[in-house]
# Entry
Amino acid sequence: MVCPCSSPGGQMRSMLPSLLRGRRFNCREWALEKLQRCLEARDPTKSVEGTACVSPGVLVTGGPGTGKTALLTELVWPQSEACRAAGLASRCLAWHYCQREDAGSIEVWRFVLGLVEQLKESAFLGPNYVKAISSAAIAAVLEPLHCQREPDNTFKRAVLEPLLSFTPPAHSVFIVIDSLDSGYCEGNGVGESSISGSATTQSSSIAELLLKYLQLLPPWIFLVCSARRQNKAICKMFSDEINRSCEMRVPHTH
# Structure
């Protein structure tokens, strides 16, 4: 089901699913197994000390056409017996597929508001999330114009703070963000100064937003992201933030 991405003002369109949804998934069982191990390491049943040193996410890298999007699509809409048996799709909290042909899919404010809409529909969070963002103050930061001006503020107030206030679910969950490098140009979007956490600096890309707040996400949430390995800036920045043992390189298949 395509989650509706309607803002309080009704000015947003529905989020687009992966273009590869429903296609047959071949091979990559090793990747699914590795992702499952990384996810289980974040389970709330682990001790606080144990989860604190576990990577908060994984970055799937590879060249064009190596299967990154196919893998991240399989996690949300499984076609293979291996993925269905693993039950990974049932632990997906939200998803976002950046598409180079769709400028709206790489806009930070649309990503944030779309994430809010998916969290509202989440079976993991139930009515608690809707209640947590029902105040007039949160409604104000969810206005599209406010989110366009201050996407970081909307993300912190309407996503990060509510999630941090909840009791962890029985099992860890994951959020999929595909093609982080779409729409990103080196020297404009990710850098040391941009992830310093300054309240006056607004994120200019989805990658920058995630890098700023990756370490502040609840320990029961795991990020599964992808990017082309040719974008060395994003690959390096994310590799600095996640445990290299969770970094995945998808090779070409013949």
Summary: Strands lie at 57-62, 92-97, 173-178, 221-228, 248-249. The mean pLDDT is 80.
